[in-house]
Amino acid sequence: MPEVIYSLAGKKVYVAGHRGMVGxxxxxxxxxxGCEILTASRSEVxxxxxxxxxxxxxxxxxxxxxxxxAKVGGILANDTYPADFLYDNLILEANIIHAARTxxxxxxxxxxxxxxxxxxxxxxxxxxxxxxxxxxxxNEWYAIAKIAGIKLCQAYRKQYGSDFISAMPTNLYxxxxxxxxxxxxxxxxxxxxxxxxxxxxxxxxxxxxxxxxRREFLHVDDCADACVHLMKTYSGDxxxxxxxxxxxxILELTELVSKVVGFQGKIVHDLSKPDGTxxxxxxxxKLRSLEWAPKIKLEEGIASAYxxxxxxxxxxxxxxxxx
Length: 323
Ligand code: GFB
Known about the structure:
Largest sheet: 6 strands, parallel
Number of helices: 10
Shape: globular
Order of helices and strands: EHEHEHHEHEEHEEHEEHEHH
Distance between the termini: 28 Å
Bound molecules: guanosine-5'-diphosphate-beta-L-fucopyranose
Strand order of the largest sheet: 2-1-3-4-5-9
Radius of gyration: 19 Å
Helix content: 25-40%
Structural class: alpha/beta
């Protein structure tokens, strides 16, 4: 473990987006840090309303903030609701980051996404590849909002000396995921499709696109562990990639999910749906140099996500919600 430069013990730590998959995993992970965890429901504070965010922050005065609130969704939701993905994410991150500086938050972590990188970036993608080429069109709206979040942290660090850092997780999955087939990411969609085909004795499942795109997956509990680790041990201008360092094709993933779920039928393709970016494997070098590595292997993680699905521990949303 590298030197702890910011201990969370005894601190008031606000997790924005605590009902989402990532925020709830961070709340679970923080339980052993000896801190007081602050959360706020949507009825208490609407994060898209500046005055409400400022009033809540002034009243509660957190010492540290994990900014895990976001409008999120899979490839189709991103492509269908560009205004929501751009506006909601820009406004909520600007509100929280600005208010955090105003009330003197000591440390803030902004969470982004691997889609911030150029569509055709060299693989594995290093942090320095940011803003070196055009984005993937299906999610450029979300990506622009997330790039703005990184820039806000850098700008407040430069102008005010605020210790605001950014982490960029890869494609995440796990308990608390969105299993709505129109708006979800690929992992929960495949778990649901394979399960429903198995119990319904259907001969096949349909996946979107060609199955050739490659994606990197990380269990959300590993992601939360990495975020807490970075919060305690990292301070710097540059965002940090948070991934597993390994990727698979969507077809390989479908086969693995089918194996875990116990579905033995055929896999067919809906080619009217987009493939998205061909590959986005992030370099794990920076995070490894900070002495963090994931613990949950893909097959084991899928099994735990499937158990959570069977237990009904999932959120179903119409267009995606807090990350
Ligand atoms: O996870 P996903 O929706 O998002 O899709 P992205 C990944 C790949 O899986 C794409 C394919 O090539 C999809 O075409 N796929 C196959 C499916 N079957 C399905 C299915 O039933 N549902 C879904 N959703 N996909 C998102 C971005 O990109 O990743 C966000 O749009 C964000 O902005 C997120 O960055 C992490 O990996 O393509």
